[in-house]
Amino acid sequence: MMLDRSFLHWPFLEERHRALVERLETWVAQHCEHVDHRDVDAACRELVHRLGRDGWLKHSAPGDDPSEKIDVRTLALIRETLARHSGLADFAFAMQGLGAGPISLFGTAAQKAHWLPKTRSGAAIAAFALSEPASGSDVANISTTARRDRDAYVLDGEKTWISNGGIADLYVVFARTGEAPGAKGLSAFIVRGDNPGLSVAERIETIAPHPLARLAFKNCRVDAADLIGANGDGFKIAMTTLDVFRTSVGAAALGFARRALAETLRRAKSRELFGAPLSELQMVQGHIADMAIEIDAMALLVYRAAWAKDAGAPRVTREAAMAKLYATEAAQRVIDAAVQIHGGDGVRAGHPVETLYREIRALRIYEGASDVQKIVIARSVLSSAAGR
Ligand code: COS
User: Fold this and answer.
1) DSSP per residue, 17-75
2) How far apart are CA 197 and CA 216, in angstroms?
3) Is 80 an annotated catalytic residue?
4) Distance between CA 380 and CA 130 in Å, rounded?
């Protein structure tokens, strides 16, 4: 693949990051490209198994050793690298991290000791269950309820667009416990995949197949010890987890865009038109220049946000939102240009750029649609300008 690796030497990254990418490149070539994708559930399980077996999932969520903490740059580099080769491998890695994230960041010692060794080894598949039919962007409006009943909570309601829905062993579910109206009345719970009262109401198919489902909770009892954090902390837990993972969504978009550029360069150098390679046409050169600039701008925002979090910034909401918004939108433009330069092959089913064209679209929607990221960024900019 024709790749510019100079970003690995930017000051945001360290020697250990470069070494990790080197190892991962070798691993991906051997273990990711030969997974049968016809059965998407089986492919996802297999990828989680391989990523866990060979130690990559350890980076998706720190374990129960208090000295470990999440390294967002590592998360971003892994997602970028996996996404460049396989959208499903990136999905398998990322959802394992997002699902385990609330436990890793806010769980009790017992919750961490029980679940994290399983999610990190690939023995348990994790899912993050936040969205509902009537509240995807408006998290404060969640209507699934969790009612206290002696030493248990009883969950009732519906969740939808849940990644790993149907194959997960563990769901982190956000529900209304009612301490206060809106955002202050939510809590987070661990619900086992085989918990009575939890059922898969619908499997959802999308343009880029990944395991996704709508879930129903009917009189679903979980132990009080399965509450994550305190009652009323649910909104904060969800947002803090998203602040980590939104940057990594930008990184996945960056991986898709780098693949699109690599495919385009190969095409532009090998295909002849009007008696010369495509790469000699100024119109094509214009596209290539735009693609390269957008990729560097994406990478700068992604690794800036990741570095800021790793360097100890208490909140990176604005940086993560900028990275996610810009990288996903720009990747769509880069991939669209790649399709255009590939002509008919660009829309041929199964061609790498056709696959990228389908894979990128959902990233502008999930974990906070682009429109929500704009709200987050504008609020932050306005509040830091207040009083000036
Ligand atoms: N980290 C920590 N705390 C946060 C936070 C963050 N990133 N974002 C908000 N909070 C806090 C706020 O500070 C506020 O607390 P105080 O009242 O004590 O100040 C509280 O949480 C409520 O925040 P806010 O008033 O901003 O909430 P809103 O309901 O207006 O909405 C948005 C916030 C729209 C930003 C939020 O609902 C969101 O991110 N939506 C998209 C969700 C999403 O990603 N969905 C996809 C599902 S996962 S695939």
Assistant:
1) HHHHHHHHHHHHHHHTTT---SSHHHHHHHHHHHHHHTTGGGGTS--S-TT----HHHH
2) 8
3) no
4) 23
Predicted TM-score of the model (pTM)? 0.96
Say if CB 217 and CB 156 are below 8 A apart. yes
Q: Indicate if ligand 1 lies below 6 Å from the C-beta of 136.
A: yes
Q: What's the CA gap between 143 and 13, in Å, rounded?
A: 42
Contact criterion met (CB below 8 Å) for 2 and 262: yes
Would the CA dihedral through 65, 67, 72, 76 be positive or negative?
A: negative
Tens of pLDDT, residues 10-27: 999 999 999 999 999 999
Which of 184, 237, 239 to mutate for ligand 1's pocket (most ligand atoms within 8 Å of CB)? 239
Q: What is the 3-state secondary structure (H, E, C) of 202-259?
A: EECCCCCCCCEEEEEEEEEEEEHHHEECCCCCHHHHHHHHHHHHHHHHHHHHHHHHHH
Q: How far apart are the first and last CA of the chain?
A: 49
